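discrete fold record:
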Amino acid sequence: MTSLRPVSTVQALAAALRERVLSGDIHPGASLPEQEISARYGVARPTVREALAALVHEGLLRREPNRSAYVPEVTPADLADLMYVRRPLEDLMAEAVAGRRVAAAEAALERLAALPADAPWAAVVSEHMALHEALVVAAGSPRLERLYGALATETRLGLVRLRDVYPDREELVAEHRELLETIARGPREAARRAVREHLHWRSG
């Protein structure tokens, strides 16, 4: 029998704040004063401090001297630069996995499609990331995985912007289903072209 590890108050608070950040409920630039969070969630200040530290470590929040932790803003210029760096990495992925189905990516797509209409956007971000990360893992290069992983936090924050771009989640699902089908069919050049086109961020 597998035992479940209990979730601490710090972990539970960090999870709640993470979901709010990745759902866009806490807007970029917004600060998270410890006293306000303590009062809202009914937890002690040291608990708040630990939870915020965990999210700062993940890169979802930033903290500067004499300022509360805050959500960093991912500007259009940041997104453009992020895509500039991601394209060659995903091009390598497309070349490696063209002509193959990636079960883990397809499973993430089905989980995305199955999310209820009222699911928090953070759940969409999670499955979207899982799909792309599964494709990168399938390429079979640990170094490619590490390089891609270094961009994960900025990518997750950038995906928050898509909430307003895709009011109909089915459109997002359809785009990723077409992407996976194109990669699976191949050949390499068609897969690479599909990935390049997919990486053009839509504006709201």
